[in-house]
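Feature request, filed as a ticket because there's no other form

It would be nice if the structure record came with a short human-readable summary line next to the tokens. Right now we just get the raw output. Example of a typical job, pasted below so the devs can see what we mean:
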Amino acid sequence: DGDSLLIQHCVLADAGTILNIDRSDNVWIQNNALTNGVGIDASQVRDLRIFTNGFSNNSTALFLSNITGINLSAGLSVSGNTFNGGSTGIRLSSCLPLSISDGSLPNSEIVLGVNDLTSFTSTAVSINNTDSLSISGLNLGNLVGGNRSGTGFVAFSSDYIRMDALEIQNRSTGISFSTSSFDTISCTQLVNNSTGLTIGSSSNNNRIFDSQIQGNVTGINRATSQTFSDTLHAEGNFWGATSGPSNLGGSGDNYFGAVDASPFLGSIPGCVGADTCSLQLTSQSEASVTTRDF
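Raw output as currently delivered:
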């Protein structure tokens, strides 16, 4: 506990929790090297800044809990940090609505490099009891080795999540929703995972669209439901083949459970893996072009 804390230029390592900040105001954590264990565990902290730290081989690099509108007066800002392997990248529990992105979402509280979380073998991002989260522009796949490992994004009891422009590949599970409803996935690559997307039976009114679901052992696994409102809306996705998912007679990825996949797309949607740039022409007018990374 403590207010107006500045923690900087420290080299710290611990098998448990390295920095545990609880019920404190105006905390700056910057330019530290945090190795092993839980790098930073912050709970009920107001005005928290986490800048340019190096996280390495952590069981969890960053764990934020009970960061709510009531407790948060001046804001949360996380940026400029580096991540080098470990089990879990970011955990959020009982937090106010946040944005996590590569900087493409305006006013993102947590800003990461596109590939910052690809070296975490268990989970890239895990959230619990955190509604209205937005996450965009990141690779949550596993780039450590050839074997599929861990989960890119997992949500427990978290509603109204918005996921956009993500890449998740080479995971055991790409995205998992448990007891989480009204969540939306768009313009996202779920490629070469054991299961691209898993939806629990208590998760309702979820949707995935304009996304690429390809090369997974199972594209989508939706727990069996008895009511139409529990059907996963998966219309308007590319399943890896122009003929659509195998369940509908195509040669693309398959799905299990209550999934509505028709109509499907015959090619990768333009918003997947695309960047927009501005060109200056000789006439001094501007044009916009779209490129895709392969």
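Something like this underneath would help us a lot:
Confidence is low (pLDDT under 50) at residues 276-294.
The longest strand covers residues 54-65.
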